Amino acid sequence: MSEINLPAAAEPVDSIGLKALGVAAAIAVLLAAPFLASEYWINAIIVPFLILSLAGLGLNLLTGYAGQLSLGAGAFMMVGAYATFSLQLRVPDLPLPLALIVAGLIAGAVGLFFGIPSTRIKGFYLIVSTLAAQFFFEWLFLKFPWFYNGNSSATIALSRGLSFFGLDANGPHGRYYLTLGIVALLTLFSFNLIRGQTGRNWMAIRDMDTAAAVIGVPVFRAKLQAFAVSSFILGIAGALWAFAYLGSASVQSFGLTRSYQILFIIIIGGLGTIRGAYFGAAFVSLLPLALDWLFQHVFSGHVDAGLLQNIQKAIFGLLIIWFLIKEPEGLARLLGLRRAQGTRRRLFPS
Amino acid sequence: MNMFLETLIGGLLAGTMYSLVAIGFVLIYKASGVFNYAQGSLLLFGALTFVTLTDQGVPALGAIALTIALLILTAIAIEKLLLRPLTNRSPMTLFMATLGLSYVVEGVAQGIMGSQVRALNLGIDDLPIFLGDIMISQFDLIAAAVALAIVVVLSLLFNRTRIGIQLRGVADDTRAALSLGIDINRIWQIVWAVAGLVGLVAGLLWGARQGVQFSLSLVVLKALPVLIIGGFTSIPGAIVGGLIVGAGESLAETYIGPYLGGGITPWFAYVLALVFLFIRPAGLFGERQIERV
Amino acid sequence: MKRLLVAAFLAGTLLSSFAPACAEEVSQYIPLPTYRVGAYASSGELWWGGERDYFRYINEVEGGVEGVKLNYEEFETEWSPDRTVEVYERVKAGKDGSPLAFFFTHGTPATYALLEKAAADKIPLIDPAGGKTETVDGTVFPYAFPLLFSYYSQASTGINYIAEKVGGFDKLKGLKIATVYHDSAYGRASQPAVDALGRKYGFENIQIPVADPGNEQSPQWRQIREQKPDWLFLRTWGVSTVVALKTAQRFGFPADHIIGDVWAGSESDVIPAGTAAIGYSALAPYPGGTDFEIHKRLKAEILDKGKSDLRDQKLFGAVNYNIGLVNAALAVEALRTGYKHFGARPLNGEEGRWAFEHLTIDDKRLEEIGFKGLLQQIRITPTDHEGGGAARIQSWDGEKWVLQTDWIKADHELLNPLIKEGAAAYAKENGITPRTPETETN
């Protein structure tokens, strides 16, 4: 999908038919999921997984496609969440879906602003700009009570819940479908974007921005576009994380560890692939739970609990390293879903 | 005026504590092109090992020797198990790997040695010294002297020894160094070990100030803007960057903070770094890369 | 191989949600979100040690609570509210046939995050000496229990102690009292109370924030040296307390004029500060020490038999360990109240709320359970979810905490209107009709 050099593969007709069948089956499973899984699975695993995938998708557009390194994913999610809260509180006439879009646009504008340094700064030096955003917004949203409406716990929650157009999306099913719908729409949007001229510009910049400039790619504009679009998606993901998953959130929900988590998602899932974000999100949200489960059942009671938790942390780190060594192009490649093998992409040209 | 001078001097001295952390980064980045996020964890690991040993009754010198030995072994292990398999991967992948490494180091260190806060007494009392009306921390003065000593030792190491010259060769042009028969893996081991030692010194100083505990690993966040301002590849840059960040932060909290409600230090250093980057996109002392199409 | 591994992980997590529900004798399920990893592990580790040791003592020595065994289980959260929410979702339906009677949040931010969810699910959130202060008003917040000692009470007790030190409330007039606080909602939680107290007694209220994590505080303490406060209230958490004490020493602020709050007054805060902490006092709704009756019982039955969860037994009786003991005892006594009323079987959330709202621990009961001196008298009602509101003051002599006073009560007459006001504002914003406990049956 993202490969520029990939010719439309001539596939046998029956394979296309199979594919359509597969897609249909996948959609059916997605729609029926709430009736197959327990409430815990929906609330605590599937919904956060979908939102993290969306956040991963947003960051992947910036880092995986346009090659701009960012450690500020959490900051843009934060902006989206707080903007949604403010809009719902102060512009009560705006229905939730529109509020989400406007909040996304606000996050996009903020992203654009913090993206301006990218026109002069490259590589690891660029992370300072995104880190500045991270720490600045953590401070801002905590410092000024206006942002959380003077609430003594400095948390934000939608007092009217997730209702819009007479629909009530507050139950586990409602939140699942709301999240699924938004994630699906934005995934589609991203697909179209990267297939078009914008996506090509981004990839040209990623592969080598000096060269891209020489062949006439508007580098400045394309970089800012990437920041804006990525932050737009991250902003919406942040709002969903706060209100569709957690219910109420504070700046701690979008701290630096969140930014790292999103970065892990795209690196483990596969830079520069759309589905990579989904695989990565599945990996980082399920692995700790799986480890937890494993340790509870195998070692609990035999080993000191403090030791156990620390070993778990070390194993998580080891798995990440092992993974980076064994599978440089992420789960998207590992699971064999990428069809043709283009040239290996590198984030930074040497 | 005195208040201003005191804030400035206090900030400059505090900044050298950041520089100490940043130097470890620079060494590794210079030699292996790795942005080593795990430097903070290594710092914690070194300090924690030292306190645990002294708590067990090992005399201080013996504890230092054992800790250094352990850090060298760790450096060799990191090179063999992490750097070598990841040779020629993107800097981003290496960065993520060091993030994973930091989990491993923290998990192992705290799993074995416990997560209790330990007191660390280096025998330096943190008492004020007065120069006229201006108060200076004795502890900060000693820390600054240590930082200076480290820079001198490192520059001697780089400029006067065979290993140092090889190391500079690797930093300048890895491929050329390889073709000259320099054992690049060994160089990496040495550099990581030296960075570990610098981390140990930083860890001990920071640990004496705030107790040896997990939070020690968070001082990396203070070191990042220092690195950015000084440039990733320059040790004098790390010192100058530290001074700028320390002084800037201190002055800003005192003079700008009250207008914004205070507590602005976490982001101020980054904004400061950003301003510097606009003027010099590779830091004050960093090497500017020339791109060819 | 790799695919297998991935599949195995997925299968593992799937299985975990379908754990078999079989047990003849059903025990009460108590999940414990804990943090043995991360920045706050040094406090946490002892805390869970205390909680687990007490639960174990109840199970093994007393045969459970009214015969019902306690089934406690830990979940790592690294003190992250988001991860605590995940744990909450995982456990809220109970386990092995036991519903959830209450949920320990083990941290104020986690309580904030769960407030609305738990109210909707009807599961009491238990956060002794923490939580959101307004939730003391049980008519608006039926499912939140900031037991023992709210943040307003902390401020008030601190001021009462200063008044005692300076020789009366009238002497407070014209004094400067500074608060150095962790710049977060948690750190600011006491501000309205200090503000009101300042207006009542005429002292000057200076508030100075320290940004997280707080490992460099020279600018703050330089400001303190400029303003020369007479007393200082320290509301920091984790490493920022150690650095505050050390920096205070450097700037020549006397440690015996610093009073720490509950979460700045443990061994983890003073030991690393060395000599800088000598003379420093702290509010102690959970005093440190091993001279209490319960410690003798635990020593004989748990520690000496090698069953303690404590890794380093030198820390037996540390403040954080005692926090764990007191919290566990509050839970056990509440369950006992509930079992006596509903019968000896695991309680659900609504029954748990009833149990906590009828929890009374008087002096006699304190003697019986061995907590005399360690825990204050408790009387929780549907309108008062704090139920205590007093603390002792202890100060650090370089080796151990020494208790300075008996229980000092907070000024509830002054605080209650503030709490009511906050709760009413919350009720209005969220469309909650406060319940009227007098009309409730059972």
What's the SSE blueprint?
The complex is a heterotrimer of chains A (350), B (293) and C (442).
Chain A: H1 13-36, H2 39-65, H3 73-90, H4 96-115, H5 127-143, E1 156-157, E2 163-164, E3 167-168, H6 172-195, H7 197-207, H8 209-214, H9 219-246, E4 248-249, H10 256-269, H11 274-298, H12 305-326, H13 330-334
Antiparallel strand pairs in A: 1-4, 2-3
Chain B: H1 2-32, H2 39-55, H3 60-83, H4 91-113, E1 128-131, E2 134-137, H5 138-160, H6 162-172, H7 174-179, H8 184-210, H9 220-230, H10 235-260, H11 265-279
Antiparallel strand pairs in B: 1-2
Helix pairs in contact in B: 1-5, 1-8, 1-9, 1-10, 2-3, 2-4, 2-8, 3-8, 5-6, 9-10, 9-11, 10-11
Chain C: H1 2-16, E1 28-34, H2 41-60, E2 70-76, H3 81-91, E3 103-104, H4 108-121, E4 125-126, E5 144-145, H5 151-166, E6 176-182, H6 185-188, H7 191-201, E7 204-210, H8 218-227, E8 231-235, H9 239-250, E9 258-260, H10 267-270, E10 281-284, H11 293-303, H12 319-342, H13 349-357, E11 360-361, H14 363-369, E12 378-379, E13 390-396, E14 401-403, E15 408-409, H15 412-429
